[in-house]
């Protein structure tokens, strides 16, 4: 199934706003808690749609089509690249592809739907350049490097992987000033409430 023009989000008319949609982009170092905060906020804020990335990696236990990713074959992904279906895409060291679906973004923003996704800092820069009037960039920062190192060690046993992810942190933190909002994730409840407040600040506008 090639998704070059088909939407990957099931938008509901009741959530349509009488304005252009907002595109919330959440970035931050690996292990900082982006997905945890996203889940916290989306359980509490209505009318904002999660935009899953499209990937060729295998689906894991507990995952489903569309959450946390939309899963496709490599052949389909490469066909979509040729057809210009991605706002941005990358191929990681495992050989798997990840991409952000452009037709869904365009449809949402033009039709008054608010969407949110997590994206690395380089991808976020591309989004800000493409949709400067719609993007609300939000950076999730760790309280300190030692805390981030401990979080990574708690979920990843491969020390080489941990080291590579920590090497990226200085680069990622170098983009903080490009973000409109910065949340320090030192406490889930506090940081989650701050993210909810930011999302509601925009989504409740008509």
From TrEMBL:
Enzyme Commission no: 2.7.4.8
Keywords: ATP-binding, Kinase, Nucleotide-binding, Transferase
Domain of life: Bacteria
Pfam family, one: Guanylate_kin
Catalytic activity: GMP + ATP = GDP + ADP
Entries under InterPro entries matching the protein: GK/Ca_channel_bsu, Guanylate_kin-like_dom, Guanylate_kinase, Guanylate_kinase_CS, P-loop_NTPase
Full protein name: Guanylate kinase
Originating species: Moorella mulderi DSM 14980
